[in-house]
Amino acid sequence: xxxxxxxxxxxxxxxxxxxxxxxxxxxxxxxxxxxxxxxxxxxxxxxxxxxxxxxxxxxxxxxxxxxxxxxxxxxxxxxxxxxxxxxxxxxxxxxxxxxxxxxxxxxxxxxxxxxxxxxxxxxxxxxxxxxxxxxxxxxxxxxxxxxxxxxxxxxxxxxxxxxxxxxxxxxxxxxxxxxxxxxxxxxxxxxxxxxxxxxxxxxxxxxxxxxxxxxxxxxxxxxxxxxxxxxxxxxxxxxxxxxxxxxxxxxxxxxxxxxxxxxxxxxxxxxxxxxxxxxxxxxxxxxxxxxxxxxxxxxxxxxxxxxxxxxxxxxxxxxxxxxxxxxxxxxxxxxxxxxxxxxxxxxxxxxxxxxxxxxxxxxxxxxxxxxxxxxxxxxxxxxxxxxxxxxxxxxxxxxxxxxxxxxxxxxxxxxxxxxxxxxxxxxxxxxxxxxxxxxxxxxxxxxxxxxxxxxxxxxxxx
Length: 462
What we know:
Strand content: under 5%
Number of helices: 17
Distance between the termini: 54 Å
Order of helices and strands: HEHHHHHHHHHHHEEHHHEEHH
Radius of gyration: 25 Å
Shape: flat
Structural class: mainly alpha
Largest sheet: 3 strands, mixed
């Protein structure tokens, strides 16, 4: 490694320099992207640690395979077999440290307009120093006095933050659906093939939604029981039909000309996914058969054997879940998403239709200041004039994401016997949270449709 490259990496870790890779063949990276990537790595690292803390399997493997493991645990006063470093209370402490880390940076980055200020340098650099601070805060949480009071109070803070993060996720989904429809509709003015693309996608979305509803009706209902499942399948299916009809009703189309079935198709698919996830999380029911034997119903028969050895299923589900959390944290902090959530979005005249509409074109590339690579990856300083995203909102969303991870990993209000291997096994807290998310999602989308009718004196973007 060359000396200039070493200097660049040192500036990344301990100074104000943007983070780069050591390989000069890598494509150039924007400062705003590399910064968010580094914070995402911190978030992923702490999330993985929380999952390990909630896994008895990992704890047993460490106890059986690491020499002098018990002596080491007693040496750091973590109890026999490191009992204080596992379980829901340990996750609460670690997530408290991570949440405090992001909340402090949320306060430090208020009203930063460009990357030239001292506080912006703190946000975009000093990565090793910030890593040490994060580790110290997560470790220091284990020395908080009066742990019982702290855990009880922090649980309610976590629940409130987790619900708020869920709400932001649902707002992003509604914004995503409107953005997709608006972008592709703009393309129809120049190329009629976009009508075909819209038709194919709409047909596919509703096919998936209807197919999922039929599948759940077959797998999660039983003639002799599962009344709650039948009610929610009927209610959620009816709500999807309702918003689809409202979206194309003449009164809505008059005030929102670009409302259509694409948005309602996206919402319907997501509601069906949440319904499936809720039914899969619901505790199973039992009935007596003709031989007076207990028979488990309301769950697919082929999953009863899988649930007993479901580590692979739980690992896959956990990975998908936290991938969605990370995606929500990153996408909700862009200027485009923030402005769209406030009701501000570009007009159709300036909209450029793209298949991958989530990726914004580099229209300001000529105005960006590129620093020479100095033997390593080239960094594009794209925030000299103004910030690409809101630093404060970025850290606030990661603060809420930390609380949501804490509550999810510890099974919300069933924390006493929570383990990561049974994260997706039946419990009522997860069931009701996901069912409620369905209704909130429908309500948010329905409000975007009827708001122009209820508030006629306000201007709403189409």
